[in-house]
Design brief:
Helix content: over 70%
Structural class: mainly alpha
CATH class: Mainly Alpha
Number of helices: 9
Largest sheet: none
Mean pLDDT: 87
Shape: elongated
């Protein structure tokens, strides 16, 4: 098996690099969309219990549906390719980002809000200078969770022609080749660990004030 793995890696190194690139592009684009939706929704949800229920319930319902099932349901509407894959992955990634954002804003100490009001800050200034900086650690934690979930689940994108490392895994399944399954799984794991490490470094720089 190890010989087969070495031969496959040697013969298909260019294709593997392309698949890694496609996997990473799909994942990062999905994360961008998920944060642009999840963080504002999380802020709105943090304002009241009613708003939280309205914002979180639909995504929690979608989250219990397997990603592959969502992909199949989206094919008649969006066809195949990157769009339905990103849509399904976005639905998967929004909940951890949104819920952590809710927690982050709600855990801002009330006395800090009162102090900010006491020195004459407006609500916009309080949001920008107090609430957001205090909530950022939880927001980043949720975003990191979302990123790891996206990278792990993006293997399904290959099932509908969106590319990525899932092509190796599905080829291994189709040909009954455990060596390809191992290669695909290891590459996805390394990609998850690598992006998680880079994200942690970025988080550390952004949150230096902590």
């Amino acid at each position: 098996m190890w010989t087969k793995m070495a031969e496959y890696l040697a013969k298909n190194s260019i294709d593997i690099l392309v698949q890694v690139r496609d996997h990473l592009v799909i994942s990062l684009l999905t994360l961008l969309v998920a944060t642009l939706i999840g963080i504002p929704l999380g802020y709105l949800a943090s304002r009241s219990k009613k708003a939280e229920k309205l914002c979180t319930t639909p995504f929690q319902i979608f989250r219990v549906i397997p990603s592959l099932a969502i992909l199949v349901l989206l094919i008649p509407v969006m066809g195949t390719g990157i769009k339905p894959a990103m849509t399904a992955l976005t639905i998967l990634a929004i909940p951890p980002i949104m819920l952590n954002t809710v927690v982050g804003f709600r855990e801002v100490p009330e006395f800090m809000i009162e102090c900010a009001k006491g020195i004459g800050m407006t609500e916009k200034e309080i949001l920008r200078k107090v609430r957001i900086p205090m909530a950022l650690p939880m927001i980043f934690a949720g975003t990191r969770t979302g990123l790891i979930e996206i990278i792990a689940s993006a293997t399904l994108a290959a099932k509908i022609g969106a590319g990525g490392l899932g092509e190796i895994i599905f080829t291994g399944l189709g040909l009954n080749r455990p060596d390809l399954l191992i290669i695909g799984g290891v590459l996805v794991s390394f990609l998850s660990l690598g992006t998680g490490f880079v994200f942690d470094k970025i988080t550390g720089r952004v949150l230096r004030y902590k």
